[in-house]
Amino acid sequence: MGDREIGMACAQLALERQARDVKLMFVGDRLGITGYFVLATVNNRRQARAVRDAIRVGLKEQGHGVPVSSSEDPEGRWSLYDYGAVVLHLFDDEGRQYYDLDGKWADVPTFTMDDHPASSEGERTP
C-alpha cells in the first residue's frame, strides 16, 4: 500500500468514527518531512480518542505500524499523530479555525472525504 492509500485508509477510518470535514492533503511537494496530511474535526476529547484508536488499530492491522510520535494540546483543541508518510491532525471546531491548516495549505492537492468519497468530484485529487 502506497502513501496515498495509507492516507485514504486513515481518512476513511476517521469517517467511520463520525469525524467531520475530513480531508486528505498532498503536502509532499512542499514539505520534506511527510507526504500527506489528514485533517479531521471531532466534537470532543472522547471522540478524538475513538478516532485515534480506530486509526491506530486499523493501520496496524493493515501492516503500517503505530505512530512514530504524537502530540496533544493540553486544552484538547488538537492532537497530532505522525505515521511518517501521513500525519493525522484531529481538531475540535475552535482548534480547526485557530490553526487554519485548511487555509495555510489551500494550494495543495486536496481530496475532501464524506460518506460517499466518489461524490467528491471537482476536488483536486492528490
What does this protein structure show overall?
There is one protein chain. The chain has one domain (3-114): Beta Polymerase, domain 2 (2-Layer Sandwich), CATH 3.30.460. Strands 3-4-5-2-1-6 form a 6-stranded mixed β-sheet. It is built from 4 helices and 6 strands, in the order αββαβββααβ. It starts with a helix and ends in a 14-residue tail after the last strand. The protein has helices spanning 3-16, 45-61, 93-99, 101-104; strands spanning 20-26, 36-41, 69-72, 78-82, 86-91, 110-112. It is globular, with a radius of gyration of 13 Å. Mean pLDDT is 88; it is low at 115-125.
Low-pLDDT sequence parts: 115-125
- Gross morphology: globular
In CATH's first tier, which class applies?
Alpha Beta
Using the coordinates shown, work out and report the CATH topology: Beta Polymerase, domain 2
**Secondary-structure-derived class:** alpha+beta
**What pattern of helices and strands is seen along the backbone?**
HEEHEEEHHE
- Supply the CATH superfamily name: Beta Polymerase, domain 2
Number of domains: 1
Mean pLDDT: 88
Summarize the SSE layout with pairings.
Elements: H1 3-16, E1 20-26, E2 36-41, H2 45-61, E3 69-72, E4 78-82, E5 86-91, H3 93-99, H4 101-104, E6 110-112
Parallel strand pairs: 2-5
Antiparallel strand pairs: 1-2, 1-6, 3-4, 4-5
Helix pairs in contact: 1-2
